[in-house]
Amino acid sequence: MSPRVAVLGTGSWGTAFSTVLADAGCTVTMWGRRTEVTDEIRERHTNAQYLPGLPLSAAISATSDVAEAVAGVEAVVLAVPSQSLRANLAGWAGTLPREATYVSLMKGIERGTGRRMTEVISEVGAIDPARVAVVTGPNLAKEIVRHDPAASVVASASRETAERVAHLCATPYFRPYTETDVVGCELGGATKNVVALAVGMAEGLGLGDNSKASIITRGLAETTRLGVRLGADPLTFSGLAGVGDLIATCMSPLSRNHSFGVKLGQGLSVDEIVAETRQVAEGVESAESILALARSVAVDMPIVEQVAAVVHDGREPQEVVTALMSRARKSERR
């Protein structure tokens, strides 16, 4: 009998990961708040708003009833916006299966608490961290649905849980590796979105590859500093969850954060971009919370600081370039 898995969230990555799970032999039921989206997924096997022109597996069902989605599942995959996770979990109290494995696809740091997404899941859901995993890496949703070969990392405090989740999502085109450094994997996934905004802004300003490569490299240094201070293994940031995810998100036009940053660099405001795209990039939502977390442990993150100033304080992208380039010189490894 095939494993039953619920995916809560019908955005691009949740939909793409549902495809992976279905192709790996799982019976997948997606949940979404809007019935027009769940009806489309169930009846037409498409998700036109998030993955236009790409067919979905007929093995994926969808519903707007959470209880129906999670009935009898062995794993619950959470793919809602990171800043809405706590409220969603509270609203689902008493509905979610207590003995299931929980998988986070979310890449953010909670505003106000500095919590990583697996911490929020464990705290609000009263779930043992050993039953919680995160999937992260260079996984652009449209390429995954097209079955382009990709690798990812499944991280959990329990190696057994990581292996179980990896088994659920392993396909000929999607190769999951396992890891126990949950802190490093989640920080890498969250911070790369903010760095991608900075790279996009540089592109929008007309700057070249030297500039973008410099931002990516120094962004990786910032991420590693924060991760190590919070107990992560520095080697995690040289792997798929670190530099791999960073490169894909910073350089691809398929990346929502990169594209959002380009528009910022071209002179549009955050509100104008949201009105045009009908989506908010995760880096916009997480920039301030990552910066607050870094400041709480006395870690310097100048790129994150400047991006937060643009998206929340209205600073001009060109001012960011000037501010970063005029900082006091120092050793590269500091």
> What's the pLDDT, averaged over the residues?
95
Q: Helical segment tally?
A: 15
Ends: how far apart? 53 Å
Which strands sit side by side, in order, in the main sheet? 3-2-1-4-5-6-7-8
- What gyration radius follows from the Cα positions, in whole Å? 19 Å
User: Helix fraction?
Assistant: 40-55%
Shape: globular
Structural class: alpha/beta
- What pattern of helices and strands is seen along the backbone? EHEHEHEHEHEHEHEHHHHHHHH
Total beta strands: 8
Largest sheet: 8 strands, mixed
Which regions have little confidence, pLDDT < 50, spanning 5+ residues? none
Strand content: 5-15%
Description:
The protein has 334 residues and is of the alpha/beta class. The protein contains 15 helices and 8 strands. Helix 9 packs antiparallel against helix 10 (240-251). The longest helix has 23 residues, at 182-204. It is globular and about 60 Å long. The termini are far apart.
Summary, kept brief:
By secondary structure, the protein is an alpha/beta fold. It is built from 15 helices and eight strands.
SSE map:
Layout (H helix, E strand, L loop, with lengths): L3 E5 L3 H12 L3 E5 L3 H10 L15 E4 L2 H5 L4 E4 L6 H7 L9 E4 L12 H9 L6 E5 L4 H5 L4 E7 L2 H11 L4 E6 L2 H23 L4 H21 L10 H12 L4 H10 L4 H8 L4 H15 L5 H12 L3 H9 L9
Parallel strand pairs: 1-2, 1-4, 2-3, 4-5, 5-6, 7-8
Antiparallel strand pairs: 6-7
Helix pairs in contact: 4-5, 8-9, 8-10, 8-11, 8-13, 8-14, 9-10, 13-14, 14-15
